[in-house]
Amino acid sequence: MRQLHYAVTNRYPHLRPLCVLLLFTVALLYPLLSGRSLYWGDILLYFDPMYRFGRSRLIQGIIPLWNPGLLCGQPYVGNPQMNVFYPFSLLLAIMEADRYIALSCAIHISLSGWFTYRYLCRWTLTRSAALLGAVTFMGSSALVGRLQFPPMIFSAAYLPLLLQCLDRCIDARERLQ
Fold first, then answer.
1. What is the pLDDT of residues 29-49, one digit of tens each?
2. Are 55 and 100 in contact (CB under 8 A)?
3. Can you give the pLDDT at residue 173?
4. Inter-CA distances, 122 with 19, 22, 110, 157, 169, Å
5. What separation in angstroms does the CA of 148 have from each of 13, 28, 114, 125, 142?
6. What proportions of the chain, in percent to the nearest 5, are helix, strand and coil?
7. φ and ψ at residue 58, rounded to 5 degrees
8. Mean pLDDT along residues 122-134
9. pLDDT tens figures, 98-109
10. Residue (of 99, 98, 103, 58) closest to 77 by Cα position
11. CB 112 within 8 A of CB 139
12. What sign does the dihedral 67-70-76-78 (CA atoms) show?
């Protein structure tokens, strides 16, 4: 059994940190994932009704262009907070809005941790330091304090990936010179 463990961890060195990051996400967002709501503000009053409307239209096979139920009507597909064409929005067609919000926030918190870990592996001496940095970013108030604004979480998840891509571009340019 021990030989199998070493074979798996040697072949997939990022498997253990990925498991740690996923477990941390579940521990961090357990109330949200278990069906409770962390916030009553914008989640309940804005995003939940908007995602419910979007879900009803997507189930009918209609792209939700206009939401007539908000004020005197408002663009839905043109609202950048509704992210209609974002790939994770496909989950909205198969689950209720509150579950979608919880799961998509958990997925993006996990992605932020994974991308931060991969970025920090380049800048730290040990993988455990990169893992600690990733967990710190995942649990920071910059992310957890913004859970009532899902589009902010969706965007923040890709910041470390953007930094990693920028580093690679700089390295490629230095190699060409």
1. 888 888 776 666 788 888 888
2. yes
3. 83
4. 20, 21, 19, 18, 14
5. 34, 15, 22, 35, 12
6. 70, 0, 30
7. -65, -40
8. 94
9. 899 999 999 999
10. 58
11. no
12. positive
The C-alpha atoms of residue 168 and residue 75 are separated, in whole angstroms, by: 38
Residue-level pLDDT at 176: 81
Residue with tokens 């939401």: 67
CA distance 94 to 98: 12
Rg of the chain (C-alpha set): 19
Q: pTM of the full predicted structure? A: 0.85
Count of residues in the chain: 177
Reference 162, options 116, 97, 104; nearest CA is: 116
**pLDDT surpasses 90 at 69:** no
> Rounded to an integer, what is the distance from CA 6 to the centroid of its chain?
31
Please answer whether residues 44 and 37 qualify as being in contact, where contact means their C-beta atoms are separated by less than 8 angstroms: yes
CA distances (Å), origin 90, targets 131, 158, 170: 30, 19, 35
Cα–Cα distances in Å, from 99 out to 34, 37, 93, 102? 9, 10, 11, 5
**Beta-ladder partners of 89:** none
What pLDDT score was predicted for residue 106? 94
DSSP lists the bridge partners of residue 67 as 74
